[in-house]
Amino acid sequence: MNYVDLFRATLPETALEIAALLVIVVDLGFLRKAAAQIRVAAAAVLGVAGCAAAIWAVYAAGWGSLSNGSYVVLAAGGSAAVAQVAILVLTALTLLLFIDTGFTRNPGEYVSVVLMATAGGLLISAAQDLLVIFVGLELLSLGLYILTAFAKQSGKSAEAALKYYLFGGMSAAFLLFGFSYLYGLSGSTSLPRVVLWTYMASANGATSLLLIALVMIAVGLGFKIAAVPFHFWAPDTYEGAPAPAAAFIASVSKVASFALLISISHAILWWPSMLHLGGRLTVTVSSPGAPMPHNTPGMVTAWPLILMVLSAASMVFGNLAALAQTSVRRLLAYSAIAHAGYILLGLAFFGWSNLSAQAILYYIVTYGLTTVGAFGVVGVVERATGSDKLDSFLGLQKRNPLLAAVLLVLFLSLAGIPPLVGFWAKFNLFAAVITLGSGPLHGPGPLSSLPTDALALVILAIAFSAVSLYYYLQVLKRAYVMPASDESPIKAHPVTMAVLVLIAAAVIALGCFPALLQNWIASFYV
Amino acid sequence: MAWTITISFAGALIVALLPKDKPVLARWFALVVSVVGLGLAVAGYAAGFGQGRQVFVDALWVPSMGIHFLLAADGISRVLVLLTGIASVSGVLFSWNIDLRTNQFFAFYLALIGGVYGVFLSGDLFLLFVFYEIAIVPKYFLIAIWGSTRREYGAMKLAIYSFVGSAMVLIGLLAAYVTAGSHSTTLAALASAGLPISFQMWCFPLVFVGFGILAGMWPFHTWAPTGHVAAPTAASMLLAGVVMKLGAYGCLRVGIGLFPHGLDPWGFSFVGIGSWRDVFAWLAVIGIVYGALVALAQTDFKFVIGYSSVSHMGFVLLGLMTLNQIGVDGAVLQMFSHGIIAGLLFAIVGRVVYDRTHTRQFAELEPMHLSRRLPFAAWAFVFAGVASMGLPGFSGFVAELQVMVGAWQANPWWTIISGIGIIVGVAYIWRALQKAFFSDTLPTPHELEAEQTHKFAPITWPEYAGVALLGFCTLAVGLYPRILLDQIEPAVKTLLAGGTQ
Q: Å from A523 to nearest chain B CA?
């Protein structure tokens, strides 16, 4: 590994950082006296250009991973590339939604922080090394804390940021603590090597230490994806953060964190799959003559169990708590917790074949897209009515029919109604879970009997997604059914409207032709 | 025939984009779309005589899971597509007086119709499910926005019941897909995949109940009366006329078609019930009697019809559970017949009577002496009522007779007890006729005066046309049932012989 390789492998991140600096230079250097609208537009356009350049860089980088001789540090292609492109597209969309907001007088700073946080997201999507993971996570998280606090005149924004920061700092400590145990057990920071050595360590009786490490890591990452019981920051942050920042947290940060979880699950299955494919795994036992344990679990059994518990808790609690919300942003936060639960189910029954990784990617990409749109609509309504309460959506179909139609499409997609893309996301994921429930190395094919634990959790998930229809309909009911208290039309910026319509159209089109997105994701797995 | 789906969805989209201040345009456009749909259905039906299963479109839709965009029709599908066409035209005719957000109304209406056509024509398990779910959402909005009594409650109840039902179905379908491990999810491929009997044993009841909820299966029927009562006329016509048929069709096509061994005996019996078949047949019989008895006790005109739907749909489910040719033929025929008759009854109660009297309570309708003031409504209801009672010459008679004969062959007690339901059926229609139209008492001078001052709006041409269309259909099928049975019989025969070919 030399610096040229490093530069080439981090070209997308570099592009984003350059764009971030450019935005600041242009905004503070040239446009200081310009009208606020022009500054916002210039910053957003530069940011989108940076994202576009980064997407080009992801494609141009090809499929060559960066390795330090024998182990990969940054992966390329596969789930990393899919997640990176998705992150960049979603970032561009949130930047376009930023144009109409006007909650800040420093648009340049906002956009450059967004771009730097995105660079962190790109890093953790591809990271295969504990240190890179931690650095990327911190880069992302610090950006998110700042973005949450960006509406300086709003007390709620500051409160949300402080809560987010305190929770985030604590969970980062947990994560680092878990990583330190892993390093102590394995003597390495490279994910595949960590997994291999923890096999040996657990064969030598260090299983309990390994379990502590895994639980700590689950706490740290559970916070990032807002899984129950580490979700407390989510409703407050979603409610207090400025709308485009909330959209960014809800989509980009989620996609990146789940991409990281895919890498970890993948690494954990690396050695068993090698055995399955006819390779050999030599486990050295430290004291000669000691009986060789028959069962050397490593992380293969403990990790899925932890994820299963988080998943079930998130699905149940997220959906039930969402029923009681009166603020649409908090409703979206609890629904995000529920969706994290579904995705965790896919990670708990992760399979070595690409089936699960692709189903999870499909889910997070489409979920991220839908959520950006949903926050966009909430932002527009909020600016017009001054609140994000359910009742501020009253009579939306009269006040802005197009916006109401977009809301209808996005919320029905979140509820998983076909032919919208949210249905296929759930469908693929649950099918993959049942298929792979009988063992991580199982590929598609007939089963002799259905795996009961996977089936039971899928039944739980489907039952609770039936519950979720109720709260999504609560919003739609106000938009379409109940009479408006105020019938003055709601105006939205043409760019905002265009972005929202584009997202809704994508949700419909990708739902009617589900193979489009599947093929696109599969194209990275060559 | 496959164009019916495209035309309905395209129509829904265009109607939604029509200018808002021109309700007349939206109405005529919706009428044209539904008439074209009916024309296609009739043409497809006529072309289907003597044909087995016709495949219209077959394309790979989701290659990674083997999901096909497969539209096909056998005799059963063709009959139900025809029913959908008739119901959609008459529904538009009876919602001619909708003035509130007319274009949105017809957009949701046509989207619902498109979903229904799609279900009946789907040849792929998941395609069928997709269309089935598409039909849920428009129903909610049709009832919640344009409904009457407790509309938001009724609409939400209906949506939640439907969604719970479809969640059960989805679990069953996913489990079947994974268990079969096949590379194609067409109904034919899955039926021949040889699903293990133990699997079918638990998957069948799950899917059957899931679809059965929408078919008004007792004790999961409670959405039906509240939903029907809350719905605007056209939506209750569609709910009873075609949406409940979606459930019954799913029970037949997916439940019985894919999991035939789910109906096998368990190997032990408890109070004479030894298989899922017995369980569901008895639930159907209870539904027939219970629906009829509850209908007898109602004070709201529309609730009478709502509960009568539960009772009549019980015959469909009973017919399916006979598993013999004549019984299942009867069940399919009953789907058609009930779709027409219930549509007619709801149209008279909801549009012809309620929109003029603004009440559905018998106590308030009785002093109005509607037989004098709305003679057309009274005689149309007599006509629809005797059809609903199952008088010979109407479609209900042929259908219910076949179901009863089939049930007798399977278990005579089913026939004997559901016979009680038919007798009570005569009673509640009779009671409704008397209370609503033909009051015993002569009008008092005060009431005569009220008649002179408050004249009801005259019957409009769409109402005449709708009643004529539906009345003609029930008579035609009643007098010449072969017109449907020629298509139903061969399709049922192959379905019962195993496989969904």
A: 13
